[in-house]
Design a protein that fits this description.
This protein is an alpha/beta fold and about 230 residues long. It folds into 2 domains: about 45-155 and about 190-220, Vaccinia Virus protein VP39 (Rossmann fold, 3-Layer(aba) Sandwich), CATH 3.40.50; about 155-190. Helices cover about 40% and strands about 20% of the residues. The protein has helices spanning about 15-25, 25-40, 60-65, 80-95, 130-140, 160-170, 175-185, 190-200; strands at about 45-55, 70-75, 100-105, 115-120, 140-155, 205-210, 215-220. Strands 3-2-1-4-5-7-6 form a 7-stranded mixed β-sheet, sandwiched between helices. The longest helix has 14 residues, at about 25-40. Bound molecules: S-adenosylmethionine. The site of S-adenosylmethionine has 20 residues, from α3.
Length: about 230
């Protein structure tokens, strides 16, 4: 029998959780995310407005901004405890002029932020009790030709498999992180479930497994609204 999804709390609002997350080493998956972006969008011209949904400490967005100095970036997360460590890095890297971190929960009114040429999101989807919220938000803030990359965990076939993944990749991490990781694996969606979400949202995007624990969604988007205003 397939493992049923067990949702976890949406926001990581606890200060200890935020600190443990910021101090953990996510360089492997974060670099994989940035590599995937470069691989899926080799024609990216390195400019435009970039949005990271559920950015947390914004490690990925900060690296993206440093690699692409002609972008202007917005990171959105509903938990100030997760954003706080990122704000310190912004000052240190002198990125405050073109990278803004906003404490806001999805769903939000997309018009508040305008349209984006690039939309990124790593490990947000599995937190959402209603996953359609992510895809509706994406559709709301898409500029013509927007490049989108979403990466997340996928749900393993059993609790035993989930425990093995935690042991393999976080065996040496503090208990709080190991528990979060285990709960996240149980809350994650399978590739077939994400494909159904995309079909429901009318989004023509690719969705594939990209590692033994991650899936990715990517593609180019056109807004449902009429950009010429006619
Ligand atoms: C696992 S963390 C990922 C953080 C970051 N993207 C990364 O890759 O390190 C998930 C983040 O999504 C945020 N989040 C969850 N539900 C949210 C919602 N409805 N609106 C905004 N942020 C949300 C959490 O607060 C948390 O910071």
């Amino acid at each position: 029998m397939m493992l049923a999804r067990i949702p976890e709390p949406e926001l990581m609002a606890d200060a200890a959780q935020g600190l443990a997350y910021a101090e953990a080493d996510f360089s492997g998956p974060n670099h994989q995310f940035l590599r995937l972006f470069a691989e899926k969008f080799p024609d990216f011209d390195g400019q435009g407005r970039v949005l990271d949904l559920g950015c947390g400490p914004a490690d990925i967005l900060i690296h993206f901004a440093l690699c692409h100095p002609r972008t202007s970036c917005v990171g959105i997360d509903g938990a100030e405890a997760m954003l706080a460590p990122g704000r310190e890095v912004l000052a240190h890297e002198r990125l405050e002029q073109r990278l803004e971190l906003c404490c806001r929960c999805l769903p939000f009114d997309g018009r508040a932020f305008g349209r984006f040429d690039v939309i990124l999101s790593n490990s947000l989807l599995h937190h959402l009790h209603d996953p359609h919220v992510l895809w509706r938000t994406v559709a709301d803030v898409t500029a013509p030709g927007c490049r989108l990359l979403v990466m997340d965990l996928f749900r393993p076939s059993s609790r035993r498999a989930a425990r093995q993944i935690v042991q393999t990749y976080a065996g040496g991490e503090p208990d709080i992180l190991q528990n979060d990781f285990y709960n996240s694996l149980l809350a994650a969606f399978r590739v077939d479930e994400v494909r159904s979400q995309l079909a429901h949202a009318g989004l023509s995007l690719h969705c594939r497994q990209v590692s033994d624990r991650h899936l990715a969604v990517w593609g180019r988007l056109e807004p449902a609204w009429n950009p010429s205003g006619c």
